[in-house]
Amino acid sequence: MSERDELTGALVAARYRLEGLLPGGADSTSVFAAIDTQGGAPVVLRLLTVDSLVAVDEFQRHLLSVAGISHPVLVAPLDWGETMLGGEQFVFVVTERIADVSLRELLDRGRRLSPAQTLVMGLDLCRALHHLHQLGIAHGDVRPAHVFVSSNSRARLAGIGVKRGISGDTMSIEQARYAAPELSIEPLATPASDIYALSLTLLETITGEVPFAADSLAVTLANRAGKLLPVSADIGPIAVPIEEAGRPEPHDRSSALKLGQSLAQLAVKFLPPEPIEALATEAFRDTITRQLPIAVAEPPQRQSDPVVEVPVSKPADVSIVVPPRERKRYRWLWSVAGAVALTVSALAVWQVLAVDSFEVPELVGLAEGEARNTVSPLGWNIVISAERSDEVALGGVIRTSPVAGTMLREGDDFILVISEGPTLAVVPDVTGLSQADAVAALEAQGLVVVETIRDDDSVPAGSVVSWIVTEQPNLLAGSEVLKGTQVAIAISGGPVLRAVPNLIGRSEVDALAELAAVQLVAQRNDDVFSSDIAVGLVAAQEPQSATQLSRGDVVAFSVSKGPETVELPRLVGLSLADAQKQLTEAGLVLGTTSGRTSSRVRSVNQDGVTLTAGSVVVKGSAVNLVFP
Length: 628
Known about the structure:
628 residues, alpha+beta, Phosphorylase Kinase, domain 1, Transferase(Phosphotransferase), domain 1, 7 domains, 4-stranded mixed sheet, 15 helices, 30 strands, 23% strand
């Protein structure tokens, strides 16, 4: 029993008495049959759970926007509001209770409509959606639970605005079965997404199957991305407009008006549809497992010998001797009674055992709808079980219990195990694994691997830096996806190389900042003399600029302490040869000479300035000698 069953009998808004749950609710919605105590009219009341006051405000605004809608095919809201039940906050929507049966209930009981019946129903639904779309309103939740059909195949559409009004961007698994693929990116419903949902509803009405449906919202929507609906031509000319309405791209789909026109043009190709048989009011399981009451025939009256009355004597301590003839008569009476009892028992057993039995047909590989239609006349209690299979396509029969060839009595359970599609792969976390190990782990799950190389300073070369599921980048490790899903892994190519900046002529502060910006480590060596670089600026570096290094490598530099100087030796009075020798030893260079060089040096100058012994000059500079 659902916990919502406990609300049966509750009074909502001091007016609506809940009578019992109805099929067709979603994760956050419960649908109740109810009575309006102010007049006794039967209604349908939807209770929706809320998470915030903001959601309630949005709900109120949206219901006001659709309150004035009037159309013969649409079931518009009669009343709405807030309520507290069992300590929990709800909002509610009240609509009229339709005598027709919901399409969801029809399908759940194994019933399918003919293409002609579906066409008539589809025309009505197109009229309803065209009216909404002209008003700028998207229904947002077109599915069989909101479609009600009568015996003449006419339909009415309920659920206007309920999903979008309160649940925002959330979507239940049941709603996802009919959701357009673009809702995985932008969850707001549009006229195009309504038409996609209608195409799936019409197709399921005929075939009993919803294409691409899976057991999770994300996988269902991912399965539909870029995929055309697999509409078989076996369903007749109605396949064409259904396929056009279910195109993966919204702009390729028919509008409600165009779909309705296409269906109307096809109507001349169909005979008038047979009436839809009414469903029994009792539960489906009760119907097919019902047994007829056992009728026990009364045994015929037999004539027997006159009964001799035996006087009843008071008890005494003496034995009563019965004549032999009387004893035989009693034995005969006991034999008759035993025979009657045996006959009654035999009749009862015969009544129980005299139930028709049928041989289980071979159903493996058939679609669920076809399999159910095959065995439904045999009176078995059909039990549906689902599991995944890599051999049997989605919606096909994997096996039956009992197996084909077995004799099974009417009323016995017959289990159909239906495929939910291929087994799912579990996405492993391969971050940090070696390239080979990561590929092996992913391929072991049946996933397709795409590799890229990316330099990374922290992950060793050849190991996985990161991974994503290409079509669903937000999935985490442990998520289940279809086998064959693509996973992209980024392999580390090792540290990112960076070029050494040119530090020559920079101040020490600037040099440190430039090296830090490229994540290289600075090392200052001893200051050096430099004739070209001013004091305090970088005069030398190792390695040279533009060299490629890894993060954290060392770059050494030296700061200039200016040019190196020496004292001028005594040169006046020396011969040219002796003077030149003194200059070389002091680290100086002989510049120009003037006068008679065979004489002795008379004076020394540099750049027009006369020098004397002990004058400070730049080491390596040229000194000029003057002779008489």
